[in-house]
């Protein structure tokens, strides 16, 4: 699902990369869901860690619940009404589904097949991913992949080309006995927005220029990645990764990749291309669905995920450093925006003509952000320091007149959190050293060292001169 290093890759800067692992993102957003305020369930599909018993049991419960709601959706369809009694049952099912939709926003992406997607926690570029609507097959996928991955690299050297394609998801696989053995399972978006019969996702670049105080930047240009083959949510093959995964590293292995290229540029579009026009058609009377609905929802999801991670990053974040992230979003058929995953160190290679134009432009603008924005902020703060009201700049408006290219500051916290520098202890932790000092015992020999004679205070300087002469 991602072009570059995934949230679980070992690349990055230690704890900085760790803060956005698939598992860490899962934990942080689960915490957001259970805390007061808006829930992450409105923009992040249900996700569970299969390596823990509690999470695995929770997944099984959700799987059964979604299977039951899938039956309700089938009963609620008009085709189910074959008799007067069936019409009554279908009406009750529709009422129940309406109540479920009001209580659980995840019902907007649910379908009739109860599909879940399983991902290795330490892989990127779509490797090891599988889609299933049978819980036994899903768990078997995790067990088989983990066992086979330790030998996949060695075996791939002697395999035929066709067999290498079959093991595409296993190459460079995880090793047992590490975080690589962990798997996450996520609710599949069964009702995505379809353009030219294809699924697509949005790759959005984000920069965190400071974790304390928190500053978050959003690139105003993103690109759309299409799957290589047509999507059919009702009868299509669940196991066909070329219809379900939008990652270019996966799509280019399809036999029909070039013949069925819907964009003419490697199945990648800029957001201003016809995909954006299709979005506008979904909302009548709105000038720009993109700027009025989609982009604000993406920015809100970015701010909330970064704010969730701030506390965990403070002990690891380095001063005067930046971190580039690649956010992957999808849209459902009602234009709901869903965060799929966050990638550290996203790949910026020129895989298509679109990325060949966009990546260098983003990199040039990134230099402006790193060099010009801090100097501009310092001037702005000095300008308001002597104001009578004494108020500090409390939002991102301080960067409105700063040339940062297409980078836009969407969050700037003026208050620095009281937190020790990296390597120090957290506030409230007592700092003391328990032990006793080491003392060296000096032994003097009487022959080698003897104390000096006492000074005779009765002898004057004149007496000493007379004695000398």
TrEMBL record:
Q: What is its main location?
A: cytoplasm
UniProt xrefs under SUPFAM superfamilies: Glutathione synthetase ATP-binding domain-like (SSF56059)
PROSITE patterns in alphabetical order: TTL
- Annotated segments matching region Disordered: 442-469
Query: What UniProt keywords apply to this chain's record, in alphabetical order?
Result: ATP-binding, Cytoplasm, Ligase, Nucleotide-binding, Signal
* InterPro entries xref list: ATP_grasp_subdomain_1, TTL/TTLL_fam, TTLL_monoglycylase
Protein's UniProt keywords contain rRNA-binding: no
Question: TM spans, by residue?
Answer: none
Respond yes or no to whether keyword Signal is given for this record: yes
Name of this chain's protein: Tubulin tyrosine ligase-like, member
Q: Extract the signal peptide range.
A: 1-34
GO molecular function, a single term: protein-glycine ligase activity, initiating
Where in or outside the cell is it found? Cytoplasm
Q: Which domain of life is it from?
A: Eukaryota
GO CC annotation terms, alphabetical: cytoplasm; microtubule cytoskeleton
């Amino acid at each position: 699902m991602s072009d570059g290093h995934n949230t679980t890759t070992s690349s990055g800067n230690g704890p900085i990369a760790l803060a956005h692992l698939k598992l860490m993102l899962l934990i942080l957003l689960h915490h957001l869901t259970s805390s007061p305020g808006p829930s992450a369930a409105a923009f992040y599909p249900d996700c569970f860690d299969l390596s823990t018993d509690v999470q695995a049991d929770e997944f099984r419960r959700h799987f059964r619940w979604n299977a039951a709601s899938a039956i309700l959706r089938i009963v609620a369809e008009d085709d189910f009404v074959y008799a007067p009694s069936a019409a009554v049952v279908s009406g009750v099912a529709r009422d129940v589904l309406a109540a479920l939709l009001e209580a659980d926003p995840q019902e907007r992406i649910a379908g009739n097949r109860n599909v879940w997607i399983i991902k290795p926690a330490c892989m990127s570029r779509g490797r090891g991913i599988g889609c299933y609507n049978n819980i036994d097959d899903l768990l078997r996928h995790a067990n088989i992949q983990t066992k086979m991955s330790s030998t996949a690299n060695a075996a791939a050297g002697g395999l035929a080309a066709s067999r290498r394609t079959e093991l595409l998801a296993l190459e460079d696989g995880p090793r047992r006995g590490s975080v690589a053995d962990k798997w996450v399972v996520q609710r599949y978006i069964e009702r995505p927005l379809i353009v030219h019969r294809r699924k697509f996702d949005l790759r959005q670049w984000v920069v965190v220029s400071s974790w304390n105080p928190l500053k978050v930047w959003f690139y105003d240009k993103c690109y759309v990645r299409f799957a290589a083959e047509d999507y059919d949510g009702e009868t299509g093959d669940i196991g066909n990764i070329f219809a379900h995964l939008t990652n270019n590293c996966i799509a280019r292995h399809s036999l029909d990749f070039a013949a069925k290229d819907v964009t003419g540029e490697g199945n990648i579009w800029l957001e201003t291309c016809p995909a954006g026009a299709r979005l506008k058609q979904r909302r009548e009377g709105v000038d720009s669905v993109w700027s009025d609905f989609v982009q604000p929802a993406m920015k809100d999801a970015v701010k909330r995920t970064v704010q969730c991670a701030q506390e965990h990053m403070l002990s690891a974040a380095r001063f005067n450093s930046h971190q580039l992230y690649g956010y992957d979003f999808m849209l459902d058929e009602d234009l709901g925006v869903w965060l799929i995953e966050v990638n550290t160190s996203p790949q910026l290679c020129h895989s298509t003509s679109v990325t060949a134009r966009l990546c260098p432009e983003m990199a040039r603008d990134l230099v402006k952000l790193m060099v010009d924005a801090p100097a501009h902020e310092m001037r702005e703060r000095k300008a308001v320091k002597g104001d009578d009201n004494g108020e500090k700049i409390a939002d991102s408006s301080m960067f409105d007149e700063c040339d940062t290219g297409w980078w836009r500051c969407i969050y700037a916290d003026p208050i620095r959190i009281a937190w020790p520098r990296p390597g120090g202890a957290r506030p409230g932790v007592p700092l003391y050293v328990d032990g006793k000092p080491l003392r060296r015992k000096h032994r003097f020999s009487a022959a080698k060292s003897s104390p000096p004679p006492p000074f005779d205070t009765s002898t004057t300087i004149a007496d000493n001169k007379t004695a000398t002469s």
